Amino acid sequence: MTIVGPRPFIPSEQAQLPDDRLQVKPGLSCYWQLEDTTKMSDEEQLELDYRYIRERGIGTDLKIIWKTVCSVFGAKNC
Hints:
Elements: E1 2-4, H1 11-14, E2 27-29, H2 31-34, H3 42-55, H4 58-72
Parallel strand pairs: 1-2
């Protein structure tokens, strides 16, 4: 597991995922962590994972880490 990466899935969910989704290590935070995923379908959540896979890089990771820290501490203007 990494600091930033697609959300980890439970084993029963992994069997249903496309192989390309499983090529990236899961992480503690990502776009799905910063969104209200309770109102999203599974397909929308999976699209957030693919968004990270397409955009991943040090800049994206730093942006996600910063926004996660802001979210944890309740900062509004991050």
